[in-house]
């Protein structure tokens, strides 16, 4: 029988997972020219929610509105219409920014500083006490695996090392919410895997992560939910496993089945005393799903996103 403490812990965990950390309501951004005429509609009536403790992916080709969405959520841009909320507040508030970490697509770091000096510098910007700052710097350097190169100047770092120290810089204030803009850009397969592992570690520590990418495979085995944007519009949103299911096909996996029984169905599997592993919907790949949505979007540009899919949809 569950104890009161266990039940309270489960209830708290459930409440945290349902807490909305990011919310956009009809969020729209239009860029205008010198005379105030509409030049580009970068984002069109975006509605989405990101819950505490999840990895949420924004997917789309270049120019789809990913970076615009992130800048609106960071308070770096102001919406033309609609609303963006972070922790239930306007993201331009300083008190909100203190709870956020941000890794831009290009890390603008001082090349002549070492990794340790870089993190110490940003720690001072947050007015962290020296003892707390030193402890935080040590932890982050270990976390991103750069202890062996902590005193080398950043100009000597590879692209992968630079991205890792950039991530450490984004985490110096121990943020609750982390924005990662194209975190795997320019990385080799090993660097991509290391970055994915770091993102998964952040989730295990209770952080909420919003990550953008146009590299579909980068998010397929990392994100809990994704939103696919195309030409500034939301085209699809839901859990990755639910989105990738091929719903008009059924896949049956068995072990120890004879050649004669392969032509039979479920009852025959039992009769031949084979092990029924599972019966489920097979999945496509995130790349195939994405290309299908983009092609459909180009054919029917006014089509809106379908309802958010989750486990209850399967």
UniProtKB/TrEMBL annotation:
The keyword Nucleotide-binding applies. Pfam families: ABC_tran. Keywords: ATP-binding, Nucleotide-binding, Transport. The keyword Protein transport does not apply. One of its GO terms (molecular function) is ATP hydrolysis activity. It comes from the Bacteria. This is Putative ABC transporter ATP-binding protein YbhF. It comes from Blastopirellula retiformator. The lineage of its organism: Bacteria, Pseudomonadati, Planctomycetota, Planctomycetia, Pirellulales. The gene is ybhF_1.
